[in-house]
Design brief:
single chain; mainly alpha; Serine Threonine Protein Phosphatase 5, Tetratricopeptide repeat; elongated; Tetratricopeptide repeat-like domain-containing protein
């Protein structure tokens, strides 16, 4: 006959096999031998509840309580079993007597609340918590438990009440409560309720409620009201200043440039003694806001991108409108102000670098940009910024067409970098491709890929370039190779911002090499470049031709984008987007196109 632990194991095995009666017999025998065997008691109780023998289950628990009067959970379980027997009056008495006896212990209220919530006894739960709060003098007792209970049942008015009680006493849990309230705001039907609850709580002058209300306004795109709510919290100390910087930065990220500028400016205009670190962050943030205003508008937000995020085909240059010149001038002034007011601070290299970025990407003053980058380098930047500066110095040489100087610069940096695939290695590979030395590019590519892993940062970029070389050079005809060499010249032009020359070279390849393997790639590159140059009719014609190539999804989508963004014909654009979804549902463009269609429909409805 099995003994002790073996007996328990055998009984559990019987349960798993579905032989409940034998398992029950084992547990009863164990309890007769040792009435204090908790594991046998728990398993037998669960079997009796599962088989609906609630009278027997209640008797079992009563015997257990007699033997173990300090087992508080058993009292609650007894009440639950009696309640399940439909004897609600007796169950209520059991719980009431339990509360009277042990009501000075906060944990018993939590145990009862969880039981009541499981049984759907909402009113009893509310009365219990109210009694507990009064008795223990803790007005926030079980507020989070109640709030989560109401939240799960979408009783949002009561959920908000309890969350507010909780957050006032536990401000360190601000993120938890904010996340829950903002999730409720996903449904517009809850907006009025949330605002009413939060505004009515402001009279108690709790800053945490103001922050919650400001977050709600921000989430629902009521940015002016968010800013005003933050104003009501004051701007008096470092905590306020950091909160204000976060708000201004978030407004910038939401493209609320005017409000972001206003917020930064208000901080800088304060007649208070502000730490230089705060001033530096405000000046840099303000400069970045003006800088972001320079970025191209929605036309730069195209669905179709040529080899997205691939380092080898990335174009860093930006075009700005004449209306953006004022922002450009203000940006220059702000970064120069940082350098004048905080010359020896950690902001100095950042300001020099931002100036260099504007000179490189926008004004294309490559000498001036290089001077700014070198000044940033001399200002002791951190390691990440230092690497970006060194990379950009090499880019200025490429942009000037001085590929020899660029190669020498990247070689020196590569020797100083211990990483197997450093960004400097990538730049060296890029240069071999731009100069048309395809054999060398292939050799270096192969050697780097052999020593890399799929999770390496640049792995996909390397594989895509290797695929291009393999298709159109290694396994291509002599004409294919010649066309690829011509194409590498196009990429060199693009790195020098010679957009017209690049477009003409692509057109030359398209017209003179009609049968080469790289032709679809050339067509896609030219199609997108013509859009950038606003040669819309040429781009549209090429997009139509792309429908007969492997880039048919791109061709269809581009036609939709041209109708949407250049012609303003949303109905016609929708036809092309629907065509894409119907003809190429598995395309990588399908989901972005669905999102664009949803945005357009929402815009029309509003």
């Amino acid at each position: 006959m099995p003994q002790g632990r073996d007996l328990i194991q055998n009984a559990l095995l019987m349960e798993r096999r579905g032989d409940i009666e034998r398992a029950r017999t084992f547990y009863e025998d164990m309890l007769r031998e040792n009435p204090g065997n908790r594991q046998a008691y728990q398993r037998l109780k669960e079997i009796l509840k599962r088989t609906g023998e609630l009278d027997s289950a209640a008797q079992l628990v009563e015997v257990w309580i007699a033997l173990n009067p300090n087992d508080l959970q058993a009292y609650i379980e007894l009440g639950e079993i009696v309640f399940l027997k439909k004897d609600k009056i007796r169950a209520a008495k059991i719980w009431h007597d339990f509360e009277i006896t042990y009501g000075t212990n906060k944990s018993i209220y939590r145990m009862l609340v969880h039981t009541f919530s499981r049984l759907g006894l909402t009113e009893e739960m509310e009365r219990l918590v109210k009694r507990g709060r009064n008795k223990l003098g803790q007005k926030d007792m079980l507020a989070l438990d109640l709030a989560n209970y109401y939240y799960s049942r979408q009783t949002y008015d009561r959920a908000i009440d309890e969350y507010l009680i909780y957050i006032i006493e536990h401000p360190q849990q601000e993120k938890l409560v904010t996340d829950r309230v903002l999730l409720m705001s996903d449904d517009p039907e809850n907006h009025l309720l949330i605002e009413k609850k939060l505004v009515s709580s402001l009279e108690n002058n709790h800053v945490i409620i103001n922050k919650l209300l400001a977050g709600y306004y921000f989430k629902t795109s009521r940015y002016n009201e968010a800013l005003n709510t933050h104003r009501s919290m004051g701007l008096d100390n470092n905590s306020d200043f950091n909160r204000w910087l976060l708000l201004a930065g978030n407004l910038r990220k939401e493209s609320q440039y005017d409000l972001s500028i206003k917020a930064y400016q208000e901080l800088l205009d304060l007649e208070l003694e502000i730490h230089p670190k705060i001033i530096g962050e405000a000046l840099l943030g303000l400069g970045k806001t003006y800088e972001d205003q320079l970025l191209p508008n929605i036309r730069n937000n195209l669905l179709v991108v040529f080899y997205p995020d691939n380092l080898f085909f990335k174009n860093e240059f930006l075009q700005i409108s004449s209306r953006s010149r004022e922002s450009l001038e203000k940006t220059f002034e702000l970064y120069k102000r940082v350098l004048q007011e905080l010359p020896a601070s950690s902001f100095s290299p950042k300001a020099h670098f931002r100036l260099g970025e504007i000179q490189f990407k926008i004004t294309r003053d490559f000498d001036g940009a290089r001077a700014s980058y070198l000044s940033a380098l001399a200002s002791r930047p951190d390691n990440n910024l230092r690497q970006n500066i060194l990379l950009r110095i090499g880019d200025t040489f490429i942009a000037e067409g001085n590929l020899i100087a660029a190669r020498n610069h990247f070689k020196v940096q590569h020797r100083n970098n211990n990483n197997s695939i450093s960004p400097f290695t990538m730049k060296e590979i890029h240069l071999t491709f731009l100069t048309g030395t395809i054999d060398t590019a292939k050799t270096v590519l192969d050697s780097v890929i052999v020593n890399s892993l799929p999770n390496d940062k640049y792995f996909n970029d390397l594989m895509e370039l290797q695929d291009i070389i393999a298709q159109h050079y290694t396994f291509g005809s002599e004409t294919d190779k010649e066309a690829l060499l011509q194409y590498s010249i196009t990429e060199r032009f693009l790195q020098q911002y010679k957009l017209v020359e690049a477009a003409e070279m692509l057109a030359f390849i398209r017209e003179n090499y009609p049968d080469v393997s790289i032709l679809p790639t050339v067509m896609l590159r030219e199609c997108l470049l013509r859009l950038l140059l606003e040669d819309v009719s040429i781009s549209l014609n090429i997009a139509k031709l792309l429908e007969k190539t492997i880039f048919a999804p791109q061709g269809i989508t581009i036609q939709g984008e041209i109708n949407e963004q250049f012609f303003g014909d949303i109905d016609e654009a929708m036809k092309f987007y629907n065509n894409l979804l119907e003809s190429y549902p598995m395309s990588m463009l399908a989901e972005p196109v669905r999102m664009r269609m949803r945005q357009l429909k929402n815009t029309e409805e509003s």
